[in-house]
Amino acid sequence: MTTATADVRSSGPGDALTARDRGALGDHLFRWLALTAGLTVLAILALIAFSTTQQAWPALSQAGIHFITSAQWIPNDVDGSGPLKPSFGALAYIFGTAVVAVISLVLAVPVSLGIALFVTEVAPRRVRGFVVTLLDLLAAIPSVVFGLWGLAVLAPNIVGFYGWLHRVFEPVPLLGTLFGPDANGRSFMTAGIILAIMVTPITTSIMREVLLTVPRTDRDGALALGATRWEMIRGVVLPHSFGGLTGGVMLGLGRAMGETIAVALTIGASAQITGNLFKPGNAMPAVIVDQFGEATGDFRSALIALGVVLFVITILINVTARAVVSRAERRLQGA
Amino acid sequence: MRVAQRRLLRLLALLLALSFVAAACGNDNTPSASGDPTTTAADGGTSGVDYSALTGTINGSGSSFADGFYQQVISSMADQAPDLTVNYNPVGSGQGKKDFAAKLNDFAGTDSLVKPEEAPAGSYLYVPTAAAPITVSYNLDGVTELNLSATTLAKIFQGEITTWDDAAIKAENAGAKLPSTKIVIVHRADGSGTTSAFTKYLTKAAGADWKLGAGDTVNWPAGSQAGQKNTGVAQLIKDTKGAIGYVDFADAKATGLSFAKIKNKDGNFAEATLAGASAALAGATAADDLTLDALDAAGADTYPITAVTYILLRPTYDATVGANVKGFVTYVLTDGQSEAASVDYAKLPAALATKALAQLDKVTVG
Questions:
Q1: Cβ contacts (< 8 Å) between A269 and chain B: which residues?
Q2: What is the pLDDT of residues B48-76, one digit of tens each?
Q3: Which end of chain B has fewer beta carbons closer than 10 Å to its terminal beta carbon, N or C?
Q4: Residue-level pLDDT at A13
Q5: By CA distance, what is B238's nearest residue in A?
Q6: Confidence band, pLDDT 50/70/90 cuts, at residue B253
Q7: Which residues of B touch A79 (CB under 8 A)?
């Protein structure tokens, strides 16, 4: 997104105003203010990373690489007289977070792109305002409301549909596994659907902004060459805004991976790794919110370590996405 | 003239307000000086304590399991101690103990014992206040009565017994028509003292057959379902055919669930009742520090899955807080006990209540 908007700006008339002598003091002040604001973000991020890692260290150093390769999450009391020793392996929760985020993006991205294209390219002006208002309203609903709706309305009623999907797609190789038997109301799929609904307004509004930055002249040029509306969108609008669209998807992904309470309520809270999307699972933020209240000592530290893992994954995804976008943009725009 | 009138009115209002304040101050002093004998008599001799002299605020936090009981006691005590404010914040036993060690509260509520790393020995005293049965609730069409032993329970919750018509369940329920429905295990998603008590019971009563250990959170078998808090678990059981889960007595009753009779140490299948929980307390032997393990306790009528809840007190308090805390705990152990049943908690047997009251003498105030 940033790359796309930057391109637009650099082609603007800003270069004429770079003279040094006018309002030098104001410029300086502004520069320092902006710099401080920028650095504050960095400082806050660094402090969060530092203090969480520090607090997570007892568990991380004890579990080592097992923390992300093992699915044995046994936070029993150390003095518990049971036969099991505490063990912190978060693989099932990492898996759950990834699966739920992927489901939500698969469902939300096409819909978001569709809405954004409809609003910017197809809809008449009056309908446009109405749709945008509706989306903003959707974005304003607190996540716990989505969670409760998922828990009380969606989960009990969608089981039948899951069963139907399973019967229809059973012979298809990959889908037969994903849409497995013995569907549960609270499952990866339900949590993914709820997340998709929550992610849609964010991705849509960013995609809409990005699509609006496509220059009028480019569109008109394509149309003048005899392109149909779809050809114009495919040939001009999408390549021009590819970076920004990906940025919108990334923001949605961030929301999906970090969402806590709505997922906690709908995912079913069972630590398991399975290809069947209709089975209950668990995700990292949900585990933290569920178990933090009664956690002490190493257990508490292990929960904070989950937060650190989530943080690292988010950073990795963002960096990768940025690399993909910059490479793809060079290719798509051919410049 | 109008202005003059207004001024006069204002002056009158001020005088009136002042006189109220004066009266209020006077009221504070009089009962503590002269009202002692009358209020004590009015108490009916249950505790022989005059609570009306207590003034100030004390703060407690901890066990959410005991929250219903403490809130009930606090509201009924307000009639007798109008100037005392007791706040109880159900943040969970673990957090309550953390607050207690950091001196953020005046007393803590806890269902679990204090570990050495949580607070040094000697910095706290246990006072048992109430108990409650933990039900094993289920959802099974046409089965109104279900008997289960600890071993069978352990196998069910470990996922070793997967259908309701398993031979092990049939053996304990000769008359019942058990369907071949799949068993759905329902447990708590959040860390919980209820989970801890339930798994400790299985560790104690099922022995080697229970392999998951005990704790606030345990590694339940894959494919089991979880709900938030007792209400979440209760709702999930109600909505799921073939479900079985552990729910506290009050929520199981409120949701209208049917719950199993559990085989106790004496070999009888006991129903989850308040009387059964009190019997468990009577059947358990209290240690010198008044901690007691009511799980799988002896006695013919004992309900074996019974959890005890405690208040943690400091050995020393300053004068005002000490008087207030002692007053509150005294009330909990005397008049408060008769309120327990109304909010689905089991009261302490008389012998244990006496011992708990004696524990208060170890608290030095001043």
A1: 189, 225-227
A2: 678 888 999 999 999 888 999 999 999 99
A3: N
A4: 52
A5: A156
A6: very high
A7: 115
- The CATH 3.40.190.10 portion of chain B extends over 51-130+308-365, 133-282
- B337 and B136 Cβ atoms separated by less than 8 Å: no
Query: Which residues from A are below 8 Å from B204, CB to CB?
Result: 81
Residue type, B253: K
Query: Which chain B positions have a beta carbon within 8 Å of A74's beta carbon?
Result: 213, 218-219
Tell me whether A120 touches chain B (CB under 8 Å): no
What's the CA gap between B103 and B107, in Å, rounded? 9
Interface list for chain B against chain A, based on CB atoms closer than 8 Å: 91-95, 97-98, 115, 117-118, 182, 189-193, 196, 199-200, 203-204, 210-220, 222-228, 239
- Nearest Cα to B91, choosing from A293, A42, A100? A293
Q: Under CATH, to which class is B133-282 assigned?
A: alpha beta
Distance, in Å, from the CA atom of B268 to the CA atom of B271, rounded to the nearest integer, reads 10
Q: Given an 8 Å threshold on Cβ–Cβ distance, is B217 in contact with A186?
A: no
Residues A167-182: tens digit of each pLDDT: 999 998 889 889 988 8
**Spatial distance between the Cα atoms of B211 and A80, rounded to a whole number of angstroms:** 12
Which residue of B192, B219, B224 is in closest CB contact with A74? B219
Q: Which residues of B are less than 8 Å from A84 in CB distance?
A: 211-213, 219
A159: phi then psi, degrees, rounded to nearest 5: -55, -40
What is the structure's pLDDT at B5? 61
Taking the CA of residue A73 and the nearest CA in chain B, the distance in Å comes to 6
**pLDDT (tens digit per residue) in A275-293:** 999 999 999 999 999 888 7
Q: Which amino acid is at B226?
A: A
pLDDT value of residue A27:
86
